[in-house]
Amino acid sequence: MRKKESTNFENEQFLFQVCELNSAIAMISGRWKSQIVYSISKGNDRFHLIQQELPNISETVLARQLKELETHAILVKQKIPNTIPLGVQYVLTNKGLDLVPILEHLCDWGKLYADGKEISTCSIS
User: Which residues belong to any copy of the HTH hxlR-type domain (predicted)?
Assistant: First the structure.
C-alpha cells in the first residue's frame, strides 16, 4: 500500500487515468496471480489444490494473492455446504473467465519473445 501523499501514489493514479491498461496490469500484477487464475480455471478451486499446483508459493502469499484477486472481483470465495470443517472454493467471476484467454495469449507472446530463453512449455497454455 502506498501512502496517498507519496509521489509514487500520485504517479500511479495519473497513469490509471491516462490508460486503462495500467489499471488492468495493476489488478493482475504479482508474481503468482496469473498462475492462480489459470489454476482455478483448470479446476483447482480449493486452497490446497492451488498449493499443490504451485508448490513454491507460501501459504501466506497464496492467501494474500487470493484476497487481492477477490478484491478486484476476478474471483469469489464460496462456502461449500455440508463440509466439516467448513470448506471454501474459489470460483472465477465473468471478469476472471474473460482474463484466461488474455493470459493464454500473453503466454504465447512470452514463448516467442522471452529474452532469448528457450521455452518449451508454459503453465498457461
Answer: 19-118
The CATH fold of domain 31-125: Arc Repressor Mutant, subunit A (1.10.10)
Q: What is the pTM of this model?
A: 0.79
* 3-state SS, residue 125: coil
Residue 86 is classified by DSSP as: P
- Residues 16-62 have pLDDT tens digits of 677 788 788 888 988 899 999 999 999 999 999 999 999 999 999 99
CA angle 15/12/33 to nearest 5° reads 100
Where exactly are the structural domains of the chain? 1-30, 31-125
Q: Which three cell numbers stand for residue 57?
A: 508459493
Amino acid (one-letter) located at 26: A
Which cell numbers in the block locate residue 104?
Answer: 493464454
Long-range contacts of 39-43 (CB under 8 A, 24+ apart): 40/75, 40/90, 40/91, 40/92, 40/96, 41/92, 41/96, 41/97, 41/100
- Rg over CA atoms, the chain: 16
